[in-house]
Amino acid sequence: MKKFASTVLLCLFLTGALLLTACGSQQDEAVVGTWHLSDDSLGAFVTYVFDADGTGSRAHELGRETFRWSTSGTRLNVNRDSAPSGEIRNERWTYTITGNQLVIDSQQETGWVFTYHHAAHDSNLVGTWLWYDDFEYVFNVGGTGHRQGADIPHEPFTWATAGPALIMTFDDVAIFGVMLERWAYNISGNTLSLDSLQADGLVFDYTRAN
Predict the structure, then answer these.
(1) Is residue 39 helix, strand or coil?
(2) Measured torsion, CA atoms of residues 114, 160, 120, 63, in degrees rounded to the nearest 10
């Protein structure tokens, strides 16, 4: 009888602990979505994707990793599915969201504070843009697109805008040598100007196709 009672108490304790954990951690709906880094902070991931089911991913120019995430008060928990030796696997951040900006401040590494913009799709970019007669960008509604040229193969990508930046993500390393490209963009009339945020002096002007 004592053994049975002890077993029941243990089960109740474990159930209570699980309930407390579940109640303490959740997925803040305001975090859900795609966020892009607003500056060129060295070593920081430039794109976060937080899915509503508590899974997510983050990417930089040459790689991508997955994680599970939750929130508790002002704390954001990012539990990486894997991490290189010497790196933090279960990250803890203090987060704030103001308008379309997400600021995360590490609770484990002093000085790690990053600001992200919520992804949008500037409708002014939608369409086909030509560079001379042998190269084109196509930006579709919803964030898909491609580019191709006479000597450049068809390269599909997903795209978003964050503040003054255009971010394009490729499935593989693309013509400029990275998987994720960031450009400052400006549209004036029928001209689209792209100025690389990753390589100095890489500037192109494109004309909207009729």
Answers:
(1) coil
(2) -40
| pLDDT one-digit tens code per residue, 42-70 | 456 788 999 999 999 988 877 789 999 99
Backbone angles phi, psi at 167, to 5 degrees: -115, 125
What contacts 37, CB < 8 A, 6 or more positions away? 44, 45, 46, 47, 114, 115, 116
β-pair partners for 140: none
In this structure, CATH architecture of domain 123-208? Beta Barrel (2.40)
**What is the value of pTM for the model shown?**
0.69
Element spanning 175, H or E: none
Can you tell me the distance from the alpha carbon of 159 to that of 168, in angstroms, rounded to the nearest whole number? 4
Which tens digit of pLDDT belongs to each residue from 77-116?
999 999 989 999 999 999 999 999 999 999 999 999 999 9
CATH number of 23-118: 2.40.128.270
Show me where the domains of the chain are located.
Answer: 23-118, 123-208
